[in-house]
Recover the amino acids of this structure.
């Protein structure tokens, strides 16, 4: 099934990102890191960005297949308000008159699913449930894509909200790898966000 495949691919890419981060932080027998601090930072940020891109790909792929009438894993076919002839046409329909569709923007996604599917099913409910996490990830994604006073201010604002105190000059790497005080399992900011997005993807695919 296309939806099962899309979910499996997303989960595999997420696991690859985890593996990349773990490999970047390996140490030798004496406990010394195998990679420099700069290498570890670049590897981690690249892995995070890859995960975010994989989420966008999952949403685009499942959106297009649901628009073709493909059912969820549970067997429920979303009620659709369009009937494109094929996968490429479905993707172009979502883009509309724009040059591209920004799948990193959850508000865009929620508007689109509301237009093309009754009740936004199966996307809206589950995207709403991780709305804050998606907004946080987009802030971090912007910081990874380009450094400016605007993205740095947004990153510091996010860090202050997470840690409850000002974090002037914090880097994306530090934020991603820091323990998240909101998590009971002692996970990092990255792992916490990753787990919530992966769970949302499972629920979307299941329907």
């Amino acid at each position: 099934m296309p939806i099962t495949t899309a979910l499996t691919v997303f989960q595999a890419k997420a696991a690859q990102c985890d593996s990349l981060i773990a490999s970047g932080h390996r140490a030798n027998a004496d406990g010394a890191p195998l990679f420099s601090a700069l290498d570890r930072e670049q590897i981690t940020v690249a892995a995070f960005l890859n995960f975010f891109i994989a989420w966008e790909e999952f949403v685009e792929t499942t959106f297009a297949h649901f628009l073709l009438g493909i059912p969820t894993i549970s067997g429920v076919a979303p009620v659709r308000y369009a009937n494109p002839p094929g996968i490429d046409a479905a993707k172009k329909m979502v883009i509309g008159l724009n040059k591209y569709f920004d799948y990193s923007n959850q508000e865009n996604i929620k508007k689109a699913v509301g237009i093309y599917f009754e009740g936004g099913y199966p996307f809206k409910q589950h995207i709403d449930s991780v709305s804050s996490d998606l907004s946080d990830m987009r802030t971090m994604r912007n910081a990874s894509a380009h450094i400016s006073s605007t993205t740095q201010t947004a990153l510091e604002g996010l860090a202050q909200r997470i840690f409850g105190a000002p974090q002037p000059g914090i880097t994306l790497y530090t934020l991603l790898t820091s323990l998240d005080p909101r998590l009971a399992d002692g996970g990092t900011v990255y792992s916490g966000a990753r787990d919530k997005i992966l769970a949302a993807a499972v629920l979307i695919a299941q329907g």
